[in-house]
Structures are given as structure tokens and as C-alpha cells.
Amino acid sequence: MKEALLTSKVGTIGALTILFGSLLGYFITYNYAFLLLPFVALMGAITLLNWKLTYWIFLFSIPISIHLYLLGTSFSTSLPDEPIMWMFLLMFVLLYAHNPKILPEWWWRNPIVLVVVLQFLWLLVPVIFSNETLFSIKFLIAKSWFLVAFFVLPIFVFREKKDFKKAFWILLVPMLVTMLIIMYRHKGYSFNFRKIEQSIHPIYYNHVEYSTVISMFFPVVCMAFLLTRRINIWLKAGLFLTILFFLPTIYLTYARAAMLAVIFAAGIYVAIRLKMVNWVMPVFYAAIIALVVFMVNNNKYIEFRPNYERTYMHNSFSDHMIATFRGRDMSSMERVYRWIAAARMSQERPITGYGPNSFYYYYKPHAVSMFRTYVSRNKEKSTTHNYYIFMLVGQGWPATILYAILVVVAFHQAQKIYYRFQDKFYKQVTMAAIMMFAAGFINNFFSELIETHKVGALFYLSLALLVILDRKSRTPSQSEAEVLPQAVN
Predict the structure, then answer these.
(1) Is the pLDDT of residue 144 over 50?
(2) Residue 486 DSSP SS3
(3) How many angstroms separate the CA atoms of 443 and 256, rounded?
(4) Phi, psi torsion values for 323, nearest 5 degrees
(5) Reported pTM
């Protein structure tokens, strides 16, 4: 009894000390970061008691997390999800150091895991030879906690059907809240094409990240609707209304890539049902290579240079689309401007690249001035607007090739897993995971948002789910609790 009272007193004193220290730090510096200390302490305590509960809280926080600068402009993070990722990374390192067998052999043998591990190992090389060492090291560390949080830990969390269902609702509810807030704000601007950026802050970086997230999760909602039984009429009606809400919301982001991503994800659904998905990426790559060869031959690409005076941002989405097909859209031509610069940069550093997060500091001397647009000054310090080229410039050809292989392997594995399952629930979950990945792939063909906390979460989580589902599909005779490793508390 005395020990319990002593423990209670120590805990109370510790909690009050943290609270007082955080308030004192805030009033001295007026930095909001100090007010996070009680939250961090609480999450640490919950993690020590039940880290799986912390993981569910973590998933819930992703759609509503915001990007903030904590120490002036020298340190930025997304809150509250990123500090939890730091905690998960530390936790996993300690657990793995104590017991390397915490990751089972079947996990290491999975083709998706193999490619992702090779990507991470190769990343160490460009970081070592980086032109911007500090930025590249920060990229490596961030990649580490991304992979632990979204690619490794899910194998301990998603064990039974109820876990997949819980994750769906935990992600959907806060995402819908953010969508409603943004729609309400955008409505105040009469859904103006030029005002979408003002409507999304500080929940998202920009309208591209917002459109990518909701277009990636949209196929998951569709699969949930198909899985819901007819007898549960209210739930099925609610999911149908959610689908109807997602469609105009995706359109009103005014992001062409997101709309294309939804179509591509639907195409992957059809391709898997027809057992033809293995042809998708070879045909895609062949078309891209043929286009590049055509453009490079005799400098054909020069004929498509924009007219500087006529290539500008448009006031309506319809004008924006028309200008895209005419080659007079500023954002599209700015992409070409940077892609050409990136291609010329890769000739100088083809193996290691310039280092992760180095593109901005070196691309302008390699650009072709005739492709310059009004936004080529690039005040926001954005990069390549294509993940393949982002990898090529930052990490060299090996990284680009590994990413290309990862996409092929993911589609191939998804089709095998889908037809290996007899259980309808897991068949549809497999389809949801690969459609989410497919939408992310298309969005990142026109951007490089995999390293952002919300897009990266869905991207790596979709791959982790495919790894888990592959294991489940191979052990149908075992109970669900025996298939995956036990969660460690």
C-alpha cells in the first residue's frame, strides 16, 4: 500500500514538474514548442503501457497534423504525428538491438521488403557523397522514422480483420473532418480556382498534397462500400454518401494528377480482375522511354518550348486544362524546365546523384533558358515534380531503377495475393491497398510527395499491408493470431 502511494506521489510530482516546466519555458520564450511537453510525456507513458494504443492514436493524428516552424525558421516539423514517429524509431531501435529476430524470416524474404531495404541501403551511399551533407542526413533520418512507423511496425499491429477495419475508420473520420473544413473555407471564396491554396493551410502544405491524400484514400472508401453487407443499410448508405462527397472534393482541388490517379487506380482494379496487371508497368515504361527518345532525337524537345509571354497561370480550371493541351500552362511547362535541368545534372553525377534534398541548390545552371516561365525563380524552393527524376538527381540511377522495380513488384505481388485468397474480406483489402498505392504512384509521377508525412504514410502503409496480406494468404490454415509476430509491450 505504501509503495502504491509512493508511486502515485512520484507520478504526480513528475507530471506537475513537466507541466510547470512547459509553462515556464513558454512564458520565457513565447515558443509554443514548450506547450507540447505534457503531450509528449503523456504519449510516452501510454507507449510504455500499450504501444499499440499509441499507434492507433498516431494513425488518427495523421490527417489532422499540421506543419509548423518551432524555432523561428530553423526547425520545422509536423505536429502531432512526427514526434510520435521519433518515439517509434527509438522504441524499435531498442527492441531490435535487444532481439534482432523481432522481424521474422518471412518478412525479410518478401520481395517488396527486399526492394525497400535495398532502397534504404543505397540511400546511405548518396548521403555520404552528397553535395549538401546536412540536408541529406536530415533526409536519411526522416526516411528512417517513416519506414519504421509505416512499413515495419504495421506487421505487429494489423493482425486480425478488426485491426484493418479499425484503421480504416481511424483514418477516414479525421480526413473527412479536414475535407469539410477545407470545403467550407473554399466555399467562402466561391470555390475559386486560384483560392484553393488559401483554403487548405495549415492542414496541408499545398493543394497538391491535399489532392494526393484524398485521391489515394478514395479507392479504399470504394472497397469498404463493396465489402459492406446489404443488411447493414445505414452503414452502406453512409459510405455511399462519403463516395459522393469525395468525388466533387477531388475535383475542387483542381489537381489534374489527382483526377488521373483515380482513373489509373480504377484501371489497376480492372487489370487485376483480368489478370493483366503485370503488363501495365512494362507498357508504361516502354511508352515513357519511347517519348524520351523521340524528344531527345535531334533535339526535338526544343520545338515544344513555351512562349514566355503566353505561358501563365489561368483564372479558371477550364482555361487551365485547355492551356495544358496547348502547351501554354505555366505549371506544366515549369515541370519540363526542371526535368530538362535534372536530366543534364544526372549526366554529371549518374551514380550517386547530388545527394537527397540537393536539387534546388544546383539545378538552375543546368536549365535551358528557353523553357523558363514566370515562376522559374522558385521562391518556394520546390524540386523536380517527378519522383523518378527526384530520385535520379538526388540518389542516382540505382535509386531510380530500384523505385521502378518496386512499382512493378508491388503490382505483381498484389495480383498474386488477390487470387491466393478465398476470403472475400482480404481480397478486397488487397485491392484497396494496391489501388491506394496506384493512386499514389500517379500523383508522384507529377510531384515528389512520398517524403511528406501524410502522403508518405499512405504510400508505405499500402506496401506494408501487401506484405502482411501476402503472409496471411500463404498460411490460410493457421489462426490469424499465429500468422504474424506478437506485438511487444
Answers:
(1) yes
(2) coil
(3) 9
(4) -65, -30
(5) 0.87
- 3-state secondary structure at position 69: strand
Q: For residue 366, count other CB atoms closer than 10 A to its CB.
A: 17
Backbone angles phi, psi at 312, to 5 degrees: -150, 175
Neighbours of 243 (CB within 10 A): 14
Nearest by Cα to 170 from 63, 40, 52, 88: 63
Q: What is the DSSP secondary structure assignment for residue 487, as one 8-state letter?
A: P
Q: Please, what is the average pLDDT of the chain? A: 82
Confidence of residue 47 (pLDDT cuts 50, 70, 90): low
> Which helix (H) or strand (E) element contains residue 157?
helix 154-157
How far apart CA 298 and CA 276 sit, in angstroms, is 36
User: Over 80: is that where the pLDDT of 441 sits?
Assistant: yes
Q: Which of 121, 416, 397, 411 is nearest to 280 (CA)?
A: 411
How many Cα atoms occupy the beta-carbon half-sphere of 46 within 13 Å? 16
What would the mean pLDDT of 66-77 be, rounded to a whole number?
A: 62
Spatial contact of 306 and 185, defined as CB atoms under 8 Å apart: no
Residue 170 C-alpha cell reads as 481511424
Q: φ, ψ for residue 160 (rounded to 5)?
A: -130, 170
Instruction: List pLDDT tens digits, range 3-40.
Output: 444 444 544 455 445 555 555 655 565 555 565 666 66
